[in-house]
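Exam revision sheet. Question 4 asks you to relate a sequence to its structure. Input first:
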Amino acid sequence: MSTQNLLDVFIETNALLNGHFLLTSGRHSNQYFQCAKVLQHPQHNELICSKIADHFRDHEIDFVISPAIGGIVVGQEVARQLKKQSIFAEREDKVLTLRRGFQIEEGKKYLVCEDVVTTGGSVFEVIDIVKNNGGIVAGVGFIVDRSNNKVQFGVPQFSTLQLEVVSYSPEECPLCKQIIPFVKPGSRKVNP
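Answer key, structure tokens:
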């Protein structure tokens, strides 16, 4: 699947939005990737996640771990294709943590999966969870890299789509200066 074909799927499913958006990172942008709109279609989810699974198929991986909420569907499908267990971290008091009896097994290798990376904040938090509990991060796989490969996790990483989507600090946002209201479509509560 080429970059253009993947972008066409995002457009066809109304997952590539244009407007004024408050990102989870706290930055503002005129574009937003709502991966849930694509991943709700099992055929798209399977196809897109197969690119991640295929990339990491020859890596030694024991588990797949994802940050909630966006990464769960990606992690589950990648794990299914790799025939591995999938776990996730979720926010408790604004901090990603393992709940529901999930644990990191010391010495085991974990593939971190996410839907969209802008600054990599959630992925870095999951990496810390794995390392702080004695696990090994085998790699990071995600669907959309909004940083165009500027965010580096220090382990093998792969994204299905790399784009440089412009984002601004709130103080520098030209859309704010035009007094265009923003929307926050993501899953995490962010104070503007």
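Marking note for examiners. Residues 3-177 form a domain with the Rossmann fold fold (CATH 3.40.50.2020).
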